Write the structure tokens for this entry.
Amino acid sequence: MTDNWAGVEEFLDDTLGGPGSGKFLNLLTRMVDAKRVLEIGAQDGRSTVWLARGVGPSGRVVTLVSNTEHASMVRSDLEGAESAEAVEIVVGPAVTTLHSVRTDDDSSFDLVLVDAVDENSAQYVEWALVLGRPGTVVVLGNVVRGGEVLDESSSDPAVRGTREVLALLASHPRLDAAALQTVGTAGWDGFAVALVVE
């Protein structure tokens, strides 16, 4: 009987906020048939690989990394991965590199992953609106932060930025959004998903 449960704990951890949350991103990418994906804030290439597999060989993933060390980690994880040739890595702080992001034919992104939820998160979502279109899906990670996001008096810039972006998601007329809490190997956290509606 215990054999039936082999791997279930790992699966739940991976699906609900752990390292394997990339599988969720892959499924979401395929569900919306995304061919152009923007990833803001990759620290390694795990999610990038899952997104690249989701868009397939004819798709494109543009991933923004803050420094050359993170770029090296992304490149290392992409080595030998199918669809790796579909990935473009842009190095530098996202608040400055987003100004230069465009797809080859100036088309909109179908999915935007904001993995760098910090004091600039609201700016990232505003850029997702500029670079997206009605129907674009925006995913934000790390929006619960062990419950710290509920602390209105927090001086932590990441918590304050998360509170600001959640307020933006709740009030922006062009976005319809929901946030979910997760528990897994990453601890108590969560993610938000938004749809650009106009």
